[in-house]
Design goal:
heterodimer, A: mainly alpha, 3-stranded antiparallel sheet, 18 helices, 8 strands, globular, B: mainly alpha, 14 helices
């Protein structure tokens, strides 16, 4: 890409402006090129090259790939089960959502289905993750706008959900919770009561957020009519998730292509028509409310139904008696040796899920071996990142953090 | 022996020295350290944190700021190759000095013997001196030869044009009420409850927001906005010089607070300076400094509540709201003078 000084080869840099001690290159009359990132306090693990005329951005060039970890290739040299902790690293605070389609795709190839209780447990952790990821995004957004209270509050309240997830799965972030044929653990005793308490607390806190951040006159002035993504542009670029819904398109994988038990749950996905940064904030607030509704229903279901196996019989029948005893006592299903040596029948499968940042899809191909033949991931952030190139130009330099934060872009998920 | 002691005391309490070094530098520095601690503690309270704690748990982390100061003092000062060295080093020094110099033109008592300079035109002189220091922030931005610094310096320049007229007009409205540029007369005119904050709230509001604008207080922390311009004009600075830059902004805010106290909050009123050094100089100074500190505390609380405005929005506010407000305040002052309220 332009702007980079090549150190190998003939071209070692530009010195058009004859500045002492530094490279310089002419980019156009009255234009000023600034590299925001990758070590800039206002960028994530990415770079946005902006060219400004006075205070107005005329060009923006998102430069992704700084945290690329060759995940798709790595998965080809690991056994099937190791793919789960690997793909979690895309978005560690959204771990259940990003690995679920992989698990479901492999289940599809093996022609098995998780027990109903496991499905509810998956939805439980997915929604907990979703809320925690939204709060994480709010915190980053708050600090981008210089609002230090909105930085601290969501990060503090996120702890509630992270600890619930830890109680449920044993890990704060990379849970590795859904496994082929079910989940690893059942809910501990007293979990649903704590969950209900957390739901009540979060509803109260959302009202506090509204008072100090969402309805704050300074924040409104910064966000209204900033970074508008028109409906047709959103569809054209393939933006997904809350950003798409804030632009007036009612598309949510949970509604349009229900997976797990989402079709049995009663929830409404909010849609905003404005498409600006302010609408995207409201979109996320409303989605947290919907996730809380879902969690309430899941808690009710879990209370009403007795503890039944949470792993598919194909795996559970090989478990030694000790494992079954542990499960009866503590609700923990220890994974049998069968997972380490399992082979997946040859075939192709495609699965998708709704993560906190939008739709993630997995294409899984197996040649019948104990390792995947090919896995292709299309993550939400990678699709949402394109938007910077199209909506940032025309805004002022100070709008860039506002737009960046409102998109809730997460570089590790995009780069994979 | 006592003769030498008397001489030393005399030198220290010589008004120009006392006012510039003690009231202008040492006390505001102490207040700034307290305010920084207060700012972090209140923000922590709002944000459900503890704030500074581990350095000195018994006094609620009060020594944390001293520790931070020491860190700045002993950090290596890096001067990049590409900077213009002379202005790069001189600009922050000049900004620091120029932000405390206005204190010589501010009276801390009504007794003539304790004036550092003649007070006849003190309002004009102090305002003129207060407007000098931002020029050196722009200079340090230019001298840094860094894109972020230059943008930060330019933002500072935009903001100067926006707030300077507002702040000057707002402060001058006190001159309009009293018909005098003498700050002593202005304070004396505010005897009883006739403080100018009550008589002329418009000018006070304009001056208050103008000070926020001029000292990068939230919600106008724009010139150093971390997320676009790293540290604005100070991006290339490190160590003590960076600390000086940061300290200059707070010292300037303190001097501005003293100005607001004198002009709008009745100065040393309701106290009346008596005879001698203590009753005639020390006590009224303390009254003024306490009022100014309370004002500083209000300024710093905004950090916990607001984000920051965009540059063009801040300029909009300054030109479309504050400037008319300041003009109205000035008009109100003239009207009150005409009606003879004072």
């Amino acid at each position: 890409m332009s702007g980079i000084i090549r150190t190998q080869g003939a071209q070692v840099g530009f010195n058009d402006l004859k500045l002492p001690g530094m490279w310089s290159r002419k980019i156009g009359k009255d234009l000023y090129e600034i590299f925001i990132g990758p070590q800039h306090p206002g960028s994530g693990h990415m770079r946005i090259v902006i060219r400004i005329d006075g205070d107005v951005i005329v060009e923006a060039d998102p430069d992704m790939g700084y945290v690329h970890r060759t995940m798709e290739k790595l998965s080809e040299v690991r056994t099937w089960i190791k793919g789960i902790p690997l793909f979690e690293r895309m978005a560690i605070h959204d771990a259940c959502n990003v690995t679920l389609p992989y698990v479901r795709a492999v289940e599809k190839l093996m022609d098995i289905e998780a027990p109903e209780r496991a499905k509810y447990l998956r939805v439980l952790l997915c929604e907990i993750n979703r809320i925690a990821a939204f709060l994480y995004g709010f915190g980053i957004f708050g600090v981008f706008l210089g609002h230090s209270t909105m930085y601290m509050w969501p990060f503090g309240d996120r702890e509630v959900w992270v600890e619930l997830a830890e109680w449920l799965t044993g890990a704060r972030l990379t849970h590795s919770y859904p496994v082929f044929g079910g989940v690893r653990r059942d809910v501990p005793a007293g979990f649903t009561d704590a969950l209900r308490k957390a739901i009540r607390y979060m509803r109260k806190r959302l009202e506090d957020y509204r008072k100090i951040f969402v309805d704050n006159p300074v924040i409104r002035a910064r966000l209204e009519d900033v970074g508008v993504i028109p409906k047709n542009l959103a569809i054209e670029l393939g933006i997904t998730g809350p950003n798409l819904r804030a632009s007036g398109v009612k598309y949510d994988v949970r509604l349009n292509h229900p997976y797990e038990v989402y079709d049995q749950l009663d929830f409404e996905i909010p849609v905003f028509q404005e498409g600006d940064a302010y609408a995207r904030v409201w979109q996320r607030v409303e989605e947290i409310k919907q996730s809380l509704n879902i969690l309430e229903q899941v808690a009710d279901w879990l209370d009403k139904h007795p503890r039944t196996p949470i792993l598919h019989d194909k795996f559970w029948k090989t478990a030694p008696p000790l494992y079954k005893k542990i499960f009866e006592e503590t609700g923990r299903a220890k994974l049998g040796a069968v997972y380490a040596i399992m082979k997946v029948p040859a075939g192709k499968a495609y699965e998708r899920a709704e993560t906190a940042r939008g739709e993630i899809s997995y294409y899984v191909e197996s040649n019948g071996g104990n390792k995947p033949y090919r896995i292709r991931i299309h993550s939400a952030s990678a699709r949402n990142a394109l938007v910077y190139k199209y909506i940032v130009p025309g805004h002022r330099v100070m709008d860039l953090p506002a737009i960046y934060g409102s998109i809730d872009y997460f570089p590790p998920e995009a780069d994979r | 022996m006592s003769g030498i002691l008397d001489a030393i005391i005399k030198i220290i309490t010589w008004p120009p020295l006392w006012q510039l070094v003690v009231l202008g530098l040492l006390v505001p520095l102490g207040v700034v350290i307290f305010i920084l601690w207060f700012e972090r503690k209140t923000a922590a309270r709002v944000q459900r944190r503890i704030g500074p704690y581990h350095v000195s748990p018994k006094i609620a982390g009060g020594l944390q700021l001293i520790a931070d100061l020491m860190r700045y003092m002993f950090q290596e000062v890096i001067i990049p190759k590409t900077v213009d060295k002379f202005p790069f080093i001189v600009a922050p020094l000049a900004a620091l000095i120029l932000s405390i110099v206005p204190v010589v033109a501010i009276p801390f008592t009504s007794i003539k013997a304790y004036f550092p300079i003649d007070m006849s035109y003190s309002l004009i002189i102090s305002l003129a001196l207060l407007t000098l220091s931002p020029l050196f922030i722009i200079l340090s931005g230019w001298a840094s030869n860094n894109k972020f610094s230059i943008i930060g310096g330019m933002r500072e320049a935009y903001l100067i044009t926006a707030y300077e007229l507002v702040a000057v007009l707002a402060f001058l409205s006190a001159g309009a009420i009293t018909g005098s540029f003498n700050l002593v007369d202005i304070v004396e005119a505010q005897s009883g409850v006739k403080w100018f904050i009550i008589l002329n709230p418009l000018a006070f509001a304009a001056a208050f927001i103008g000070v926020l604008l001029s000292t990068s207080g939230f919600p106008f922390e724009i010139a150093e906005s971390e997320h676009e311009v790293v540290a604005g004009a100070f991006t290339e600075y490190s160590g003590l010089v960076y600390g000086m830059n940061m300290g200059a902004a707070y010292l300037k805010r303190m001097i501005f607070s003293i100005m607001i106290t004198v002009v709008f909050l009745g100065g040393w009123q309701p106290y009346t300076p008596g005879e001698g050094f203590i009753a005639g100089y020390l006590v009224p100074s303390i009254v003024i400094l306490v009022k100014a500190t309370i004002l500083m505390m209000i300024f710093s609380f905004f950090r916990a509540v607001y984000g920051r405005y965009r540059l063009d929005q801040a300029l909009d506010i300054a030109w479309k709201i504050l400037f008319p407000l300041a003009v109205l305040g000035f008009g109100l002052g003239l009207l009150e003078a005409y009606l003879g309220i004072i």
